[in-house]
C-alpha cells in the first residue's frame, strides 16, 4: 500500500520537470475518491484533477531509471512567487532552476502583454478627455512596470 503523504496547497514539481500549483483536494461526488486539484505553471496554465493516490505514487524506476525524484510530484514551495525567486537565484543546472525553454516562453508571453498594455495606455492617453481614464491609465502603467521587473528577473536568470 502506498504511503499516505499529505497533499498541501503549494508548489510541486512533476518528476519530468514541470511545475504545478496545488490548489487543494476534493472528493469525487459519486465515489468519494480523494482528488488533487492543481494548475500547470507553464503553457496555457491549465487546471487539472488527478486521483490523490496517483499524485502520491513513487516514480516507476523500471520505466524511468534516470529520474532523481522519488515521487511523481514533490513539494518545492508555498507559492509561485517563492519558486520564481529561488529559480532566479539558482546556478545553471541547479535544482529549482527553470529550463531555458520555460524562460524563453515566459519572456515571449511577457513581451506580448507589455506590447498590449503599452498600446492600451497610449490609446487611453490619446482620448479627448484622458482624465476620465486616469485610474485605467494608472493601472496599465503599474502593470507595465511589474512586467518589466519580471522580464529583468528572467534576463538575469538566463545569464
From TrEMBL:
Pfam families: DUF1653 (PF07866). Residues 10-74 form the DUF1653 domain. InterPro entries: DUF1653-like_dom, DUF1653-like_dom_sf. This is DUF1653 domain-containing protein. It comes from Slackia faecicanis.
Amino acid at each position: 500500500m502506498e504511503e499516505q503523504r499529505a497533499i498541501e496547497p503549494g508548489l510541486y514539481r512533476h518528476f519530468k520537470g514541470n511545475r504545478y500549483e496545488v490548489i487543494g483536494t476534493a472528493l469525487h461526488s459519486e465515489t468519494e475518491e480523494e482528488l488533487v486539484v492543481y494548475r500547470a505553471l507553464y503553457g496555457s496554465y491549465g487546471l487539472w484533477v488527478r486521483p490523490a493516490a496517483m499524485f502520491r505514487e513513487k516514480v516507476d524506476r523500471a520505466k524511468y531509471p534516470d529520474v532523481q525524484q522519488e515521487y511523481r510530484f514533490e513539494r518545492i514551495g508555498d507559492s509561485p512567487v517563492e519558486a520564481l525567486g529561488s529559480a532566479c537565484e539558482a546556478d545553471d543546472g541547479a535544482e529549482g532552476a527553470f529550463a531555458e525553454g520555460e524562460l524563453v516562453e515566459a519572456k515571449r508571453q511577457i513581451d506580448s502583454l507589455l506590447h498590449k498594455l503599452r498600446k492600451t495606455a497610449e490609446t487611453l492617453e490619446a482620448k479627448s478627455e484622458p482624465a476620465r481614464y486616469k485610474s485605467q491609465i494608472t493601472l496599465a502603467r503599474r502593470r507595465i512596470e511589474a512586467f518589466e521587473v519580471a522580464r529583468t528577473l528572467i534576463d538575469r536568470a538566463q545569464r
